[in-house]
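Q: what sequence does this backbone want?
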C-alpha cells in the first residue's frame, strides 16, 4: 500500500511528516512523494488565513487526485477547524495535533479509521503527548536534518493562534536529543536544524529546569553535527549563546534568525512581545562586534492593527540601521480567537502590500552589501542540491555555516557524485544578485 504525506507550514510539521512516513515504512507501507497513493496524510497549517485556505485546497486536491484513497487531515488547521470535516466529501478522518503519532496505528488498524471520522481525544492537550513520540531520521531526500526538540507555547502573543493549536510548551529530554543527534549523524547527515514552536522556551518544563544554551553546550560536546538554530526572540539569546554563535571553531552555525515581528516599541507592546528596540539594537550590535560573519535574519509582520505610518517608519529605520542580511516579511492576517482579531484592522490591504514591498527592497540592498563582503573569503557549504542536465553535472548548491546561499559552478576535476549532504570548502568569486557563485577548494 502506498502512503503520501503532504505537508504545509513550518519545519515542525515537516519533521512530523517525515516521522509519520518513517513509521508507515516500519509498518510495511511504501512512502511515495509523487503519483497517486492509497493513503494520503495532509499535515495542515493555520498560522494565517491564507495557510488555512491552502490546507483546504490540498485536502480537496488529495481526494480528487487519489480516487479511492483514504485521505486523512491533520495538523494545525484540522485542530483549528475540525468542523471542516462535514464540508469535505470523501475525507476518511480528521485528526488533531495530539493524535498525529497515532495515525499509523489507526491506518494499519483501519477498522477504527473507517468507523470514526473524528478522533476527539486527538484534539486534547494534556502532559507529554504521543504526538511527541514521532521521531524522524531521514528527511525525504533533503540534505539537512531536522530535530523537533520543543512543541507548544505559553506566550499567547496577541496575533497568534498557535498556542491554541499546539498546547503548552513542552520539551524533549536532553538525553533523547543527544541520542537522536547521534543517530542522525550515523545515517550520514552533516547538518542538524534544531526546531520547535517556541524554541526559546525549551527546557522550562523539564526537571531539573534548564535552557536552550545548556542543551547546546552539551550537544556541541557530544555531537559531531553542525548545528543550526531555529528562530529565537531577542531576549532569549543569552550572553553564552552569543559567544557560541560567534565562535567559528565550534559546530554551531554563525546564523541567528530572530522572530522580531516589529521594531516599533508601541506595536511590540500591543502584540504582547516582551522586548523593545533597545534589546534588538543591543543584541545585533553585540553579536556583530564579536564576529561580523554571524548572519542575522528576521521575521517581520507588517500592517498589524496598531502599526501607524509613524510606527512602520520606526521599524524601517531600525532595520536599516542594524546589520540584518535577510528578512521574511508577512502581511498581518487576523486569526479569529486571538486578542488582535478583535482590534479594528486599520491597515488597508493596499498599504500592507506597499509595506511588504518597501521592506523587501531594503532587504535586497542589505543582502547585496552583505553577500559581496564574502567574495574571495572561504566558506563551508553543505551541498543540498546537485544540478544536472542530460546527466551532465551543471552545479552544486547549498548554504554556508552563516546561511549564505551558494552555488558551486567550478568543480576543477573533482568526482562530484559524492557531494550530496557533505560539507565542502568553497571560494566565492561573484554574487549574481541572489546567491554567491563559488569554486570548490582543491582540498575539499
Ligand atoms: S511565541 Fe508568540 S508568535 Fe511564537 S508561537 Fe508563541 S504565541 Fe505564537
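A:
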Amino acid at each position: 500500500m502506498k502512503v503520501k504525506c503532504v505537508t504545509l507550514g513550518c519545519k515542525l510539521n515537516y519533521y512530523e511528516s517525515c516521522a509519520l512516513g518513517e513509521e508507515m515504512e516500519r509498518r510495511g507501507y511504501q512512502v511515495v512523494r509523487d503519483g497517486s497513493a492509497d493513503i494520503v496524510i495532509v499535515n495542515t497549517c493555520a498560522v494565517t488565513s491564507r495557510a488555512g485556505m491552502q490546507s483546504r485546497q490540498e485536502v480537496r486536491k488529495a481526494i480528487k487526485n487519489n480516487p479511492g484513497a483514504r485521505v486523512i487531515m491533520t495538523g494545525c488547521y484540522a485542530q483549528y477547524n475540525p468542523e471542516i470535516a462535514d464540508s469535505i466529501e470523501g475525507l476518511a478522518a480528521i485528526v488533531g495535533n495530539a493524535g498525529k503519532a497515532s495515525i499509523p496505528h489507526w491506518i494499519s488498524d483501519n477498522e477504527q479509521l473507517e468507523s470514526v471520522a473524528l478522533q476527539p481525544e486527538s484534539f486534547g492537550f494534556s502532559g507529554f503527548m504521543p504526538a511527541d513520540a514521532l521521531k524522524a531520521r531521514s528527511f525525504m531526500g533533503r540534505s539537512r536534518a531536522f530535530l523537533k526538540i520543543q512543541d507548544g507555547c505559553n506566550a499567547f502573543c496577541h496575533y497568534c493562534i498557535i498556542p491554541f493549536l499546539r498546547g503548552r510548551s513542552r520539551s524533549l529530554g536532553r538525553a533523547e536529543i543527544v541520542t537522536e543527534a547521534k543517530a542522525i549523524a550515523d545515517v550520514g547527515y552533516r547538518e542538524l536544524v534544531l526546531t520547535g514552536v517556541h524554541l526559546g522556551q525549551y527546557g522550562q518544563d523539564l526537571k531539573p529546569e534548564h535552557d536552550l544554551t545548556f542543551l547546546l553546550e552539551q550537544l556541541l560536546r557530544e555531537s559531531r553535527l553542525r548545528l543550526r538554530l531555529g528562530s529565537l526572540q531577542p531576549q532569549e539569546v543569552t550572553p553564552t549563546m552569543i559567544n557560541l554563535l560567534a565562535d567559528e571553531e565550534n559546530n554551531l552555525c554563525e546564523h541567528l534568525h530572530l522572530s522580531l515581528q516589529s521594531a516599533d516599541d508601541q506595536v511590540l507592546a500591543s502584540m504582547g512581545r516582551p522586548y523593545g528596540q533597545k534589546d534588538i539594537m543591543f543584541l545585533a550590535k553585540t553579536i556583530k562586534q564579536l564576529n561580523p560573519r554571524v548572519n542575522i535574519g528576521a521575521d517581520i509582520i507588517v500592517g498589524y492593527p496598531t502599526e501607524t505610518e509613524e510606527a512602520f517608519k520606526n521599524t524601517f529605520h531600525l532595520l536599516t540601521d542594524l546589520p540584518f542580511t535577510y528578512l521574511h516579511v508577512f502581511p498581518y492576517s487576523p486569526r479569529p480567537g486571538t486578542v488582535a482579531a478583535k482590534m479594528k484592522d486599520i491597515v488597508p490591504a493596499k498599504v500592507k502590500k506597499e509595506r511588504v514591498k518597501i521592506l523587501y527592497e531594503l532587504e535586497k540592498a542589505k543582502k547585496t552589501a552583505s553577500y559581496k563582503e564574502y567574495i574571495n573569503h572561504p566558506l563551508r557549504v553543505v551541498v543540498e542540491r546537485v544540478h544536472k542536465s542530460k546527466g551532465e553535472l551543471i552545479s552544486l548548491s547549498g548554504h554556508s555555516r552563516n546561511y549564505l546561499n551558494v552555488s558551486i559552478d567550478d568543480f576543477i576535476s573533482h568526482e562530484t557524485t559524492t557531494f550530496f549532504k557533505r560539507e565542502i570548502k568553497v571560494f566565492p568569486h561573484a554574487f549574481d544578485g541572489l546567491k554567491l557563485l563559488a569554486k570548490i577548494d582543491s582540498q575539499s
